[in-house]
Specification:
By secondary structure, the chain is an alpha+beta fold. Helix content is 48%, strand content 19%.
Length: 452
């Protein structure tokens, strides 16, 4: 029950108008709007380009391959094992490369023996007529290998002996041909000498007959000598003159034959030298080619031991069984370098690549790290691809961006490893909320007033 003294008067003090309530709400709304306006204009917001990626070692995994492949003979390190630089990871059976090396070395030994023989033949052929005297010998031919045990003949020595016999046969044939021509030249020379003596004798007879005929003519003219005797003497003189002319012509022909035979001898010697020099040039050229092939074969034999180029951890080992066949150029394993810095290789969409540049700060969220215990890993953009890459499986285009991870929180570096996946937030341009809202209108307005 309401006391009588308050009957009806308390209601007079209750404010029932709405003016004060509305004015207070309006002021609160205006204040909030003002604060929002100030915030949207004065305080910039962060923006970021988000991309998926995988953690890699900045040193790049070292790929182990073999040029010609082969059969796995030994596995020195398996997947996940740590190795030092120079450790044998895989050793291939070198039997095929070793056989090729042996074949090439044998061919080189044959070529070297041939070279020495041809050099000796060249020196022999260049000796001229002096080389025709005396017995044959391997001029300049020398052994190229160490002598074997007493009483034994090594393969190199047998090669030299065979080349010595070839030298004797070849030089014997060349000498026989040249000696035959020399003998012919000498015989023709002797015939020429005999003709020269006969020409001299006939010339003396002609001179004697000329004196006799000259003395007979006055006597026959005076009638003291029968003319038939004079005529017989003149006939003898003419016969001797004709004989002398024939002998002189025959001597000249023999002189030409001697000169021609000498030219043939020189031509035979030059031809022999030219052929020998040509064969020697071919042998020397082949020796150079074989030498390069031997170096390549030696390298192949040496590289059958596939060694780790750096210290690190073996990953992606392809073969786990001795006797497996490695294809030529096949990736046998990879080495993750120890102690190298880590980076995250991300795929950025072509629509966002204009907002990414080298040197930008970034944050990486690694999925393998517990988000409740570890913060995002600070990072820095170190490389932006100059061209887009297409995913062969999906056909999607993307730009490859590499960000260097810089973990600051203790223990994070030890937890990170190549192959982990995560997201990277590449910090973009900071702008206010008002700028973000008004930019589309400003861009549209700018395009409207731009001259076509």
């Amino acid at each position: 029950m309401v006391p009588d003294d308050m009957g009806g008067r308390w209601a007079e003090d209750v404010r029932t108008d709405t003016h004060d309530i509305l004015s207070g709400a309006g002021r609160a709304i205006l204040a909030a709007a003002g604060l929002f306006l100030v915030w949207s204009v004065a305080y910039p917001l962060d923006s970021a380009v988000v991309a998926e990626g995988v953690v890699i070692a900045t040193g790049q995994n070292k790929v182990l391959q073999h040029r010609s492949g082969g059969v796995v003979a030994e596995i020195g390190a398996r997947d996940g094992e740590s190795v030092e630089a120079g450790t044998v990871v895989v050793r291939l059976d070198p039997i095929h490369d070793q056989a090729e090396l042996t074949r090439l070395r044998g061919r080189l030994a044959v070529l070297d023996a041939m070279r020495q023989r041809l050099e000796a033949e060249n020196a022999f052929a260049a000796g001229g007529d002096t080389a025709l005297d005396g017995r044959f010998s391997l001029l300049g031919l020398r052994r190229t290998a160490e002598a074997g045990p007493a009483g034994t003949v090594g393969p190199d020595e047998r090669l030299l002996q065979e080349q010595a016999r070839e030298f004797e046969r070849g030089r014997g044939a060349a000498l026989a041909e040249i000696e035959a021509m020399v003998a012919r030249r000498d015989a023709v020379g002797r015939r020429r000498q005999g003709l020269a003596e006969r020409v001299a004798a006939v010339t003396a007879q002609v001179a004697s007959l000329e004196r006799q005929v000259a003395a007979m003519r006055p006597v026959a003219t005076r009638g003291h000598l029968a003319r038939k005797v004079l005529w017989d003497a003149e006939d003898q003189l003419l016969a001797r003159r004709a004989e002398r002319a024939n002998l002189a012509a025959e001597e000249s022909a023999l002189a030409d034959e001697v000169a021609e035979t000498g030219s043939r001898i020189r031509q035979a010697r030059l031809t022999d030298q030219r052929q020998t020099s040509g064969r020697l040039t071919d042998v020397i050229a082949e020796i150079g080619q074989i030498a390069d092939q031997i170096r390549a074969a030696e390298t192949a034999v040496r590289l059958t031991e596939v060694r780790a180029p750096v210290a690190g951890t073996v990953v992606h080992a392809r073969h786990r069984t001795v006797g497996a066949v490695a294809a030529p150029g096949e990736v046998l394993a990879e080495i993750v370098p120890a102690g190298s810095e880590l980076a995250l290789k991300a795929r950025v969409a072509p629509t966002d690549i204009t907002h990414v540049r080298t040197g930008q700060a970034a944050r990486a969220k690694i999925s393998a790290l517990n988000a409740r215990l570890y913060d995002d890993v600070p990072a820095l953009v170190t490389r932006v691809a100059a061209d887009a890459t297409s995913d062969e499986r999906t056909g999607q285009h993307y730009f490859e961006v590499e960000v260097r991870l810089r973990p600051e929180q203790p223990g994070v570096r030890d937890l990170l490893g190549a192959g982990m996946v995560g997201q990277v937030y590449i910090e973009g341009e900071r702008r206010t909320f008002a700028g973000y809202v008004l930019k589309p209108f400003a861009d549209s307005l700018g395009r409207s007033f731009r001259e076509p």
